[in-house]
Every structure is written in C-alpha cells, then in structure tokens.
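Form 12-C: Joint structure prediction
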Amino acid sequence: MHLLLVDGSAYIFRAFHALPQLNRKSDGLPVGCVQGFCSMLYKLTEDLKGEDAPTHMAVIFDHSGKTFRDDIYTEYKAQRPPAPVELVPQFPLTRAATRAFSIPSIEMEGWEADDIIATYARLAREAGGKATIVSSDKDMMQLIEPDGSIRMLDTIARPGQPPLRWIGMDEVFKKFGVTPDKVIEVQALCGDSVDNVPGVPGIGVKTAAELINTYGTVENLLEHADEIKQNARREKLKANADLALVSKRLVTLSQDVPVELDIDALIRQPMEPSNLFPFLKAMEFATITKRLSGKLEANPDDFEADPEYAATAVPGAVGFDNAARAESRAARHEATGRSNAATVAHAAAEHARVRAIPFKPEDYEIIRDAAALQRWIDAIEMTGHVATDTETTGLDNQTADLVGLSFSIAPGTSAYLPLGHTDGEADIFGGGGLVEGQMDIRLALDMVKPLFADPSILKIFHNAKYDIGILARYDVAVKSVDDTLLLSYALDGPQFNTMGELGEHWLGFAGQSIKDLIGSGKKQITFAQVKIEDGARYAAEDADMTMRLWQVLKPRLVAENMTTLYETIDRPLAPVLARMEGRGVNIDRAILSRLSGEFAQRAAAFEAQAYELAEQTFNLGSPKQLGEILFDKMGLEGGTKTKTGAWSTGADVLEDLALKGVPLARTIVDWRQLNKLRSTYTDALPAYINERTGRVHTTYSQHSVLTGRLSSNDPNLQNIPVRTEDGRKIRSAFVAAPGKILVSADYSQIELRVLAHIADIQALKDAFEEGLDIHAMTASEMFGVPVEGMPSDIRRRAKAINFGIIYGISAFGLANQLGIGRGEAGDYIKTYFERFPGIKDYMEEQRRKVKEDGHVSTIFGRRINFPNAKSHNPSERAFVERASINAPIQGSAADIIRRAMIRMEPELNKARIDADMLLQVHDELIFEVPLGTESAAIPVIKRVMEGAAEPAVRLTVPIQVDANAAGNWDEAH
DNA sequence: GCAAGGACGTA
DNA sequence: GTACGTCCTTGCA
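Section 2 - Result
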C-alpha cells in the first residue's frame, strides 16, 4: 500500500508566492493557483509510476478557525497577515478541483492539515504500507522515516529544477542539522517567526542543532542547562525554559486526529469525465482539458461548464443581445452569485476588520534624516506595497511645488517626510528659507526614486494621476500603481470623490480637513507654510487613510467582478492622462487677444442696441432683469416660468420671440453668444498658459462622469467652440508648435454603431457595413423617401430621431427638438420602433435591468449605478429610464476610446512614430507630430482607434475613424 | 465668500 | 430626450 497525502493549503500558498499570478478567467476571477493545483494533481498521476505509484490518495486542507494550538499559545500564528485578496476566492475552488479529480478532499475543524497528514501517515505505516507527503513545508519534516516508509515530495515548479523533488534524510539534515526525529527539538529552541512560535530568543537553527545533537531532547537539555559553558546561552535557556517547552508542543504534530474516513476510503478512484470536465470548463483551463481528454479518451464538448463555477459575464455578451442570451446570462449570474459568496464574505470581513482599527495621530512619525528614511524604505521593501501621497503648494500639478511625501505600510503605521516647508513671512520672491529639521530634497528623492520605479513594489495613491504628474517634474518615475479613487470609481461610480467622503463612508472617519490647516479664501496659505508637525499629522493621516481604503476596496474588486475593468481600462489610463496633461497644448495668444477685442466691440454694439430697444439700460447678463423687461414691462405673450418661478429666457425662447418679431430677443441672443466666447475662451484661456512650458495644461477627471467618459477642467478643453464661425476662430488659436503639425482623429458615429452592436440591429449594421449615410438611411426607412435627392428637412428629422434614441427618446423631447407637436413626435417614434423593433427591445431590457439591479452595464462590464431607479417620483423614474438607455451606449463608446488611448503610445513606439497625444474630446484624439510625419502617423492612429474594442469585445459593426492634419485645430478637425 | 440657478459651450 | 464645466447674477452669510 502506498498512500499519497497532498498538503493542499501549503501548496496553494507556496504556489501563490512562487508563480506569477497572471491567470484570470473571463469574469476577472483570479484562478492561477487553481490552475497550478490542477496541473500538480495531473502531474502526480503521470509522474508517479511503477513502485512510486500510489494505491491510496487524499488532499488535506486547513480548516478555518481555531485549533488546539491556539489554546496552548494565544499568539500562535498571530502575526500572520490576512490571505492575499487574489487568493481568497481560490480556496473553495481548490476543494472543488480535488473533488473534480475524484480524490477525497479532507479538512477537519480544530485541526491543521499537518496533523491530519501525520495521522494518516502513521496509519499507513502501521498497516505495513508507506506514505508520501506532497509538501515542502518544513514542519512536516519531523514525520520522515529513515526506512523510507514516510517520505516527502516537493512539486512546486521552479525554473531550472526538476518538477518533482524528493525530500529525505539528507534534505532534513541540511535544513535542521539533525535527523527527522529531532526536528521538533530544534524547532522548539529556534522557534518560527512565520507561525509565531517563540522558541528561545537568541537561539537560531545552528545553535539549536548543536545543542540537540549533544543533549538529545529539549527536556534533557534543560535538565543539564547548568553544564553549558557559554554564559549568555545558558542564561537564555534557563530564563526561557517554559517558552521552549510550549514551543515544542506547538511544533509537534498530533498523530491521533480522530479522522472520519478510514484509510480504505482513500483507495484511488479513476478520473470520471462527467466529474472532471464540467469543472475544468468552468475554470476555462484549455490546455489541461485538452491533455486530459486525450488521456481519458473523452470529448470535453460533451459536457457543459459547471454553472456553479462558470464566469458571470462573458465580455461581449454584457448588455443586451437577445432575450435568450439575456436569460442564460441571468442564470449564470445567479450561479456565480453563489460561487462568489466566499469573495463577498471576504470583502465584508476586511471592511469590518479595517473599520475597527482606531486612528492614532500620535503614532505618526516624522522622517527628518537619511537614517530614518532608510528604515522606512527597508520596511516598505519588506511589505511590498505602500500607500503614499505628495503634499504640494497647490491643486494644479503643473505649477505646484513638492512640500513633502507621506508613506503608510499598514493601517496606523504612517510617516511624513517633510522636504519643502518654509518659514517667515512670504515675500514676493516666494517666502522665507527652509525650516530646520528637513532632509535635503534632492538627497531624499534620490533615495526614494528606486522605490517608486520598482515594479515589484505597489504604490497606492489616492488620485495617482496628480502625484505621478508632480513626481515626474522632479524626475521620479512611478511604476506599479493602485489608486483608491479609481477603485472607488470602478466599484461605485462618481458617488464619492474626495478621500474625506470615502473615509466618512467606509471608515466612519473623514480625517482632518485641509481647510483647518491652510484656511481658505484671501487668508489661505500654502502647505509649505504649514508647521511641519501640523503638516505631518495631516499628511501621514492621508497615507494612512489611503492604505485603509485600499484594504477595504481592493477585495471588493474580485467579489464584484470589476477586476478586469479596473486593471485593463481604468488603472492603466491614469499614467497616460498624466503624460497628456504634462504635455499641454500650444495656443496662439495673439489670435485670442485680437478676437477678444473684436468680440468686446461687437458685443458693445449689441448692448447699445438692446438698451435702445428696451428703452432702458439693464444688465444684459441678468436673465432676471431681461425676463421682467420682456414679459412684465413689454407684456409679451407665451412666456414660461422656470421651476423657481423666474421667467424663462433661454435661447430657444428668445429664438421663438425673434421669429415673432421681437428684435430685442435676437439682439440678446447675439450678445450672449459673443459674451460667452469672450469671457469663457478668448479672455480666460491666455491666463492658463503655463509660464514654465508656455502651453495650456488641462486637468482630466477620470472619475467624475457617470458613464465612464472623461471630463476636462481648468480649463475645460472639451468644449472649445466649433459650431459657429466665430467659435471656430477660437479653435484656430490652438496651433501646433513650430516644426510640428496637429493631427485630429475622430470616431465616426461611434454611439450609433455601438447601439447597432448592443441592440443587434441588422438594418443599422448593414448600413454601416456599406458605408451609407446613416441619417438618410433612417429617413428612407421611416418615411419611404429614396436616399437620392432626399429633402434636407427629412434627413434632419431622422437625425434628430437617431440622437433621440441614444438619449432615451421621449415624445416630449423630440417634439421640442423638432418644433413639432407631441402627437406628431409620438407617431415618429412609433414608426421608428416598427422599422427597428430591436431598438425597442433594447430599451425595454435596460429599463427592466435598472429597476431590478439598480444598474446597467457597458459591453466591457463597467457598471453604471442608478440609486434612484425605484424612486416614487414618476419624473425622476422616467429620467433614470432615459439615462439607463443612454449609459451603456455612451459608456461603451467611452470604454472603447479609453482602450485606444492606453494602447496608443506603445503602438506608436512600436511603429517608431514620434507623435504626442495631447487631447481627448470624447470621440476625438488630438496629436502633435513633427511636420512631414503626419502621413505615417495617421494610419497607425486609425488602426489603434478602430481596433480598440478587440479582443475583449468582437464588435459586429465596423468602426470608422476619420483623421486630418493641419497647423491648427480648426482646420485639422 | 459661497451656493444655487440660469445660460451656453462641447460630444 | 444623454453626459459634462464655466461664467455670471442673485441671495444669503
């Protein structure tokens, strides 16, 4: 008899740390360890042949919870960190894998796997057989027998080593310096920091082995302790005799576990295809499935993936396709709802654990010299990850100066490194000198630089893009980043923005407000002027808070299937945006200044005209005063009121009045237009030119928009005018730098194409495939007019309907847009749905989904939440319905361009094209390239943009990108 | 000095 | 009918 005992828990942990954890299944669940585990089980059956072939087999796991060792020594394994988030969901899966291979999976409450293994090994030996323990855990070495009846086998794959390595007497002696029967004696003395076995302080393996080889056992050693010559050693032993004895009990494996299955129950069973393949298919393990199908002579296609473990959402099938697929998806969702229970529970437990840790500002450290900084760097390298934050003199990372850095390696363990605090009164030259007690900024940055560049150390920021931008200006590159702001965005959307809001919500503590430190308004100071001690408390708390939020939010990623979205779309985009912001865009100050004068003059003329027509002066910028003049004083008919009871004076109202012969209305419309262009663009933009770079640097927000779009602010470069002739003059002030040229590339009709894909509308898809004018085609389908020679008004109506569809159409809105009656608009919509019934199905599906789940999704799995979906207010509910129809369309298009942006720079580099991506305007990317290289750049840019959905989603419509080059943005567009 | 509302620029 | 940000006025602190 040969019993093979696999130490399942040890294998998973060792494999997790020994192998790169790259494998995930299609819903983002990490399964690298499960895969390694399955390969190992398969390999064992392949490699253990002849006399090594086992006749009996079992896989043993640790049971969660307390064991008898916790009663002996309360600190046992107390310092062990919680299992890595990626690993937790894999625990139940390895049990399932064991069962799939028709092998008994054994775990027992109150016992460690090691004890169960020891017991079975003894039973096998007593029955006259032998046992092989598949493990490399040193704690098991005590079981090895010199006669070979109990052996160990290490199967963790390592480069350059044979796949299976036997551990016998020699290996044990090498490790402990004693024979296996003395291993527990040595361990009792030297202890084990991993399991927190105390041992005798100051005695290591070497000394312990020497002592045991002389005295045989711990007990005998303690009895003869007085004979030991070395003073220190003798005293340590005598003082810690109790610890040594307790340690021995801790490391001694119990061989008397009351096992439930007796050894006959462990006889090897043949693999059963109907057991095996459903699991392997659910895990999406193609290679091993293929190998086993050959071996078992079974066809895996005959089996369905086990619904309990299969992926929730297949990318490309998210959103709506047709009723049948939606149904099967719902079924899968249910199924994984169960299989994800462990990950959900883990996330909740982490939240509870972290929330319970109190904040202690008095524990924060201030790093004032190189020695202290080196200690922190060493600790960070040990930990492998660090929450970090930059403190600066302002909100704009293109102008703010670095004042300090904070680091946290665990909740409550945090430090501040002050670098640029100044004293004295600020003068016009930027303030007083540096305060004492700070490291030289260059020296400190040189010390932390390798840390930030080290890909094996994860840097956790809150809004990494800001800090990456600051650090880049100090020549510090950052690799391997997590971002609590983006984690929160992927999980909850733009619900929480600031760290204070996140802290308040998840930890019940908002943290110190920056206003308390620097004040606000006129009396506001910069962080550089804050006292170091005060700044330290704030900054260290920020890093501490970031670390806590990361520990709360990161596990939710797996539990809520958002890992792929976060890791492949949101997180990698941040450094791309940081570079775009850093590059800025060149604008021609002279053009804007000339336009400013022109607009001001023309506006003044309209102003004078307005006073004349109104027969009084008033503030043209005041809708209130205007409304009173038009509707009260002049007594015009048909005025409507806004929700606050004020007269409505929007452009559409004034336009109406103008047509009815009210010249004042036209004058106001024209004045407002010019005034808008002047105040928002020609006057404001030059003030944004950065002195250092001579360019305008916008700030993108990656976490503000419900649907996944970006937004742009300070200044907003996503709403530069284009529709009117005056507006385009402003656009022409965005110019390429000397020797360069601008390339503008925009997606053609991306949202309608996305709609055609998700709602699966064949007529629309065909039209795009054939390159038809989509609005004319719609008009022709709806009104039965041939495309050739179609009246422009008919096409205009169809265009409005197409846009209306994307916006979640209502008869009311369409009527408003087209200036027709509600009845007529309703008829249009009815006709449209008759011609494209799939669209109606899509809309109903989204309405149903949002009501049921409170969210809808993009084709890449981005979730868009609508907490209002069940509102009792009918108009609020109608709004949610329209928005939930629009969100998957707008959001999927936004995901596509995000993916294009992430891939753009590597692809341009690969093609050896020197092109700088400067701006994104939702469906358009603007680049600056050396003059003459535009014709080489454009094909690459188009290829990346057009293929951006692949391979995650195979779109069923062609994507078209139009690109042009010119010296300014107006002509390139 | 700040928040809300109205208006208007973009996709 | 969707999604944003900015400027200006108004009203209140």
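Section 3 - Comments
Confidence is low (pLDDT under 50) at residues 313-339 of chain A. Residues 237 and 264 of chain A are 46 Å apart (CA to CA).
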